[in-house]
């Protein structure tokens, strides 16, 4: 009998290792910011993270860029809250560089410094922190989500809580609860970043070098970019693309990690070929590949690309954004960008940009878009569960814009505050007073724009 068809029958007694008001699964900035906002409003909070630090893509995947907190015309501030607080912490250590009026980046930071700042802010708020801890399964009793089973070096245990936030990135908790989830037809491929020293010795256009040699070295056509880490000569290079691998499937994720590292090495081989005198040296690889998209949760409202691009205002809006729609394609090389002013650009390395419009020109354009609370409330989910992060309900176009960290940070904060209101009022997540949610977010420093 093959191992795949055999079953091990075991009986495991799972001790309750912690009890709290709120348990957050996932310690990205999304999950951590949810935990912090809830703790500030009086909840006892536990947070479970499989890696050894907070920050998610910003730290473990080494993507050291946060985008603009201003509207598309750089006039009004549309994002506040913990994103601003963390930037200010980094500024005190000269660990962040600011870029003015740039659609692609606003803050370039040192990911290693960010790790310690996030540790400190979590400890300041009394969070019960579980690093190196894997979520295993939900525990449902009497039809209610009562606890989550986790496992770490100390063994298996259960965390019992009154409310839960799934900030796992891949909707692990929601999926294992049996809630409706889905994948985009062409989810955005993942990228393995790398930290490189000696970048100034590469005396050639690195994007052109990659394009001209990609096929020979097995590099998929993609979008290469990077940023120098503040206070150093280390360059964070994001130039790989791992298509077809589904990050929510274990074998695919394993293959993606290996392929991403292979591509990084191939890039170094390309650079050695085109610029033999370079002194590039690989300094670090991420502890986890940078995932843009995987599983989504079906929620009370799916945010549509048309709603986003036309700047639709929502009465339950809990986040604002101005980052362009940015789609890394699975089914063809290059990226498509769509802007709120109606422009559309398809960029493919080695080819002229294809300029066009997704809508005709108008006298006025929206300057930001919004994310509604309903898009993070699972349809037919337990009363005490919210989802926060890249798995919220959004179509392929909307996801291309909202997926970036400054947007998801706000979603996390909203989830934390909503958990507080649900518990205080004794109501289901879907039934909270969203006007009160928006007012409480504003009181805590978030930018909530009146409708």
TrEMBL record:
Coiled-coil ranges from the UniProt annotation: none
Keyword flag Iron-sulfur: yes
Gene3D superfamilies: FAD/NAD(P)-binding domain
Record's keyword terms, sorted: 4Fe-4S, Iron, Iron-sulfur, Metal-binding, Oxidoreductase
A GO molecular function held by the record: oxidoreductase activity
Tree of life domain: Bacteria
Alphabetized Pfam families for the sequence: FAD_oxidored
SUPFAM superfamilies linked: FAD/NAD(P)-binding domain
The keyword Transcription is assigned to this record: no
PANTHER family according to UniProt: COB--COM HETERODISULFIDE REDUCTASE IRON-SULFUR SUBUNIT A, FERREDOXIN:COB-COM HETERODISULFIDE REDUCTASE SUBUNIT A
Protein name: FAD dependent oxidoreductase
Native species: Terrimicrobium sacchariphilum
